[in-house]
Design a protein that fits this description.
Elements (H helix, E strand, L loop, with lengths): L1 H10 L3 H35 L7 H5 L8 E6 L6 E7 L6 E8 L10 H4 L20 E6 L13 E8 L7 H15 L13 E2 L4 H4 L24 E8 L3 E9 L5 E9 L3 H7 L1 H6 L13 E11 L2 E11 L2 H17 L4 E11 L1
Antiparallel strand pairs: 1-2, 2-3, 3-5, 4-5, 4-6, 7-8, 8-9, 9-11, 10-11, 10-12
Length: 355
Amino acid sequence: MSDSAWARFRRHRWLPQATLVLLLVALTAGFALVRGEQRHRHNEDALARACGGALPREDAAELLADDAWWTLRTGPGPRGLVSCTVGGDGDGDPWFTVTAEPVLDPPLKSVRVDDVVSRTPYEELPDWAEEHKRADQRVTVPCPSGLPGYARPATSFRVHASTDSPASEWLGTLVAAVAEDVRTSGRCGGKPVRDTDVRQVSPSAQEAAPDAPPAECAWFRPALLGPALKGAEQSAYGATHAWARACSTTLSKPGGGVVVSSASWWGEVLPEVRTEYGHELALAGRDGQPAAGAKTYELAVWAEARCAGGRTLHRLGLEGADRDLLLSRADALLARYLDASGDCGDTKVLGKVWG
């Protein structure tokens, strides 16, 4: 019977071919199923290890291609926190990168006002220090207790992320999760980091509105100098760093102009400020007079205060050809600047000094 059945099977017009096709389909499906399970386990393992296991896996998977084998690059991030990149192994496959870093400015070239507001204020700026400006989303988290392991106080950190995935709306969840992991492991205290704390990275106010004055210069208005400079052209430069904030505003008008500068220093740079501006501070309040017949006068007014719980030094500078204008406006401008400097008390005006 079996031989007869096998003979009939072999003589059948299409049954052998159909059986072979079905066998090949079954083998292919089985191979694909096995490979799919292997890929799934591989991808699950990649997400489990990414960024020290802090990523929410389901949300992270939404950013990536389901049919790709995901590659992982992870390890200590800038200055010892965390960084990870996950993406498909094929060209055009989506990827994402999440990085956590302490907020630590490199040393300033100088504490002088002109250097603080310059476009290159630092001795050397590492590449990683600019990455957060090019990211898609980020959050900055305070760490009042200080992150351990840093010679300089690291009382805050930021987490930023980038992706080329069309499902970029999931990126903020990853940023919040990594930030919360760093906050708890670093024993920072404070409130938990939530998805709503993460912000889309956008151009700075100066980049978005080039004609608007920098935030550091918002306290000043040309009208504070009186009607003499009405209609003058105005240009302003400002910057805020870890231990210093400064602004320089130039008012230009035919027949004369004025340069108004303001600066505040605190924390670890105070000894350097007292050295760099030692001559001015030594003469402040001694009722010195400017040189007779000068074409341009420089006047500085100094004050010290306690702002946000720490000692600070403040300087208001004026430069122009009208000596009486500078002298008559200096005290009011300093008071205006100090009022706008935030939570400050125990203010003591050290006095004026002519340059």
